[in-house]
Amino acid sequence: MILKNLITVSAFTAVLFAASAFIHQNKDQKTAQHSTSENNGFAVLELFTSEGCSSCPPADELMGKIEKEYKDEPVYLLSYHVDYWNRLGWKDRFSTAENSQRQQQYSRILNSQVYTPQLVVNGKTEFVGSDENNIRNAIRKALITSKKTPVELSAAISQHKIDIQYKTPSADPQNMLLINLVEKHSSTEVGKGENEGRHLHHWQIVHKQNLISLNKQQEGITTFKLPEGFSPENWEVIAFIQNRRTGEISGSAKTAFK
Hints:
Blueprint: H1 2-39, E1 43-49, H2 57-69, E2 75-81, H3 97-110, E3 118-121, E4 125-128, H4 132-145, E5 152-157, E6 161-167, E7 175-189, E8 199-213, E9 219-225, E10 235-243, E11 249-256
């Protein structure tokens, strides 16, 4: 009888403990979900890369990997192809002087070197563009700690141009709204230079970037010329708010073409 009572008490205690553990676990999960939704964090990743750089393909591939994994989260990817590698044997067809100038601006703000592949997160921290561990840690931190100023975007296509309508409450005189026309994926057969003979893939390629001073207008329309061979399913528009003095990004959004 004593043994039977002990077994009964032990069984009841085990059930009670399991129920308590389940309730506690469920509470933690709800708290985590609530915290994520309340925080409204985001991460803007800007990669500076070049088809002429042999160290860049792993960073480009990582962009594709991250884009796939975080497609349903507020992680915004932008690849800027710089032009200073062009004189070393291969001209990158996606490169522009504006992209190189943007990297130079980050060099001054972040007190960093100019190199490829370089990746900047939310305008505040920079890493080697293929440093997966540091980049993933930076994304996780940004999604938890950053606070996003809302940006509304919509895109309309006409015969020869793309009209982007934007709206944001940000009125800081130091803030700019940078609106980017982005090609989601492309590839190149490289004929010369450090990557000669390689078939390179690129993701989230910035083709054009329009800068708008939010000191003067918090809403309006900006226009891009329709790219040659444009197909709506392979392009998108990404916009973000950036402080021109500190480089810090405080809001971001993207829109597809309907």
